[in-house]
Amino acid sequence: MNIREIAARHRLLLGGGIVLGLLGAAASLAQPWLIGRLVEAVAGDESLAWPIALIALMFTADAVFAAGHAYLIGRAGENIVHDMRQLLVGRLLRADTAAFARLDRGDVFTRVVTDTSSARIPLSQALAQIVTHGFTVVGGMTLMALIDWRLLLLTVGCLGGASLVSLVLARRVRRASLTNREDTGAFGSGVQRVMSALSTVKAFRAEQRESERVGGLADTARRSGARVHAYSAMFTPAMNVGTQLSLAVVIGWGMTRVATGSMPLADLTAFVMYLFYLVSPLVLLFLAIGQLQQGRAAITRVSELAAVPQEEAGPAEPVVPARAPHAGPGPAPAVRFDHVSFGYGEDADVLRDVTFTVPERGLTAIVGPSGAGKTTVLQLIERFYRHSSGTVQVGGTDVAAMPLDRLRGMIGYVEQQSSLMRGTVRDNLTYAAPDASDDDIARAVTLAGLRDVLAALPDGLDTELGEAGHGLSGGQAQRLAVARALLTRPRVVLLDEASSHLDSNAEAALRDALAGVAADCAVVTVAHRISTIAEAERILVLEDGRIRADGTHHDLLATDDLYRRLVSQQLDAVGAPG
Ligand SMILES: Nc1ncnc2c1ncn2[C@@H]1O[C@H](COP(=O)(O)OP(=O)(O)OP(=O)(O)O)[C@@H](O)[C@H]1O
């Protein structure tokens, strides 16, 4: 679905609004003509009751239709904004991981919140105004031509010049407002950037520098916004000059003709009234053209974001391979990599010809120097990225042949950085299983070694956490993330251990938790701590994107230099034998 289809979905409301607008315009166009008849009735000493009653009826109809028009168009506009926002949020949540990573968060925020609001204007308000005011202008001019075409030519001559100036201004407004939208997006990005790293800003005493930098962005947005207002502000005066000029000319020449008897006074009165009635729709028509131009810039920005590449959802049902993928005895391995290679974008491969198997149960640790590709392995299991060659299997099935939803339902992922959200501990814990029973929650909490932590919190499970789990220590947050991953009883738990060191109590709690979990399912952990490494039944040593060695802690200590080095670095870091 694209933006125009969204607008088309609300065509009934829009159409209804436009019809009411046209009826209102017709009612207002009838008024000068009726006033002309009133002047005739006064001059002819006829009854005034009918002309006055009709004029009152037209005023009332005009007001009622105008109110109905504004309501229906406003409502259609809000519906369009809502649908655009839903479309964008849906597409962002299902965006391809690599494409999403390239987006600027602040700019995305501006597009979803502000640009959707502006994009509604050309699709509802400006569109309706162009139709109804266009009708009033054309209708008014036709009636004026019927009264006196020579006076109309004079009027068009005076107003035409002003209209040309307004059209030029409309184009300038569009360009200025596009720049202003970009500047506002840049300001949003600047704010987002500092807000997401506020403690870094404080720790490096960069408050003043950042405040000047973000202030500079706000100033750029102010200046381009002022330019939009400067051009917009010239619209009405430009039209006013045209109107005043045409009024002076029409009254001057018209009165001369009335004096010579070649034009009835009633016709001149009606003509001058049409001229007055025409000015406001004409100004609004040009303003609507300006708004249309401004809104087109917003539609472009919304459409660009809606085109963000989407993650492939995989087949609706698992594809049954011709040959059973797992031919060996016993249950299928939890995870299997078979000659897998992968690179981010055009860059060189980060993983090269990686082959390993993770058994159905137990703890498998992945170790290796920084940048070796450990986190990337976990991300390929989750299918955040597609590997370029080889096969990745989870539970004996190729991940490419599985519906994405089912694949991720089999996995519990604990990220390296705190992945908690603002909300209560319970909200965070039950994120993947909102209907989890109290028993299931208690089990996950116990397995993750969180019972004592929860007991010490002021409101237990209902304690409110701040942004990114603010209110818990790093170790507690990590164990809460483990409990969350366990709640759905996944087949495979992926844990990306933070490289920072927890205190020894927290470390022991996490180690016990992992041992408990690994008795039930497969745990694959990127391990930095010697305590985790030593606990693992099997260790994969990754170096520069390749599996260099695998085996138990003791085997590897005896056979692999890099492993010995990694372990001794860890021992140095913790200052105690593992
Ligand atoms: N989103 C990404 N886009 C491009 N390159 C990336 C991306 N993520 C990681 N890389 C690169 O891939 C390589 C492997 O990164 P990865 O995060 O898997 O390493 P790691 O072994 O987990 O490192 P660490 O122990 O420091 O967390 C690195 O060279 C990194 O620069």
TrEMBL record:
Domain ABC transmembrane type-1 intervals: 16-294
Keywords tagged on the record: ATP-binding, Membrane, Nucleotide-binding, Transferase, Transmembrane, Transmembrane helix
Entry-linked InterPro entries: AAA+_ATPase, ABC1_TM_dom, ABC1_TM_sf, ABC_transporter-like_ATP-bd, ABC_transporter-like_CS, P-loop_NTPase, Type_1_exporter
Domain called ABC transporter: residue spans: 335-569
Organism domain of life: Bacteria
Membrane-topology descriptor: Multi-pass membrane protein
Residues that span the membrane, as ranges: 12-36, 48-74, 126-145, 151-170, 231-256, 268-289
Record's keyword annotation contains Membrane: yes
Primary residence: membrane
Molecular function GO terms recorded: ATP binding; transferase activity
PANTHER family: ATP-BINDING CASSETTE SUB-FAMILY B MEMBER 10, MITOCHONDRIAL, ATP-DEPENDENT PERMEASE MDL1, MITOCHONDRIAL
Protein name: ABC transporter ATP-binding protein
Taxonomic path: Bacteria, Bacillati, Actinomycetota, Actinomycetes, Kitasatosporales
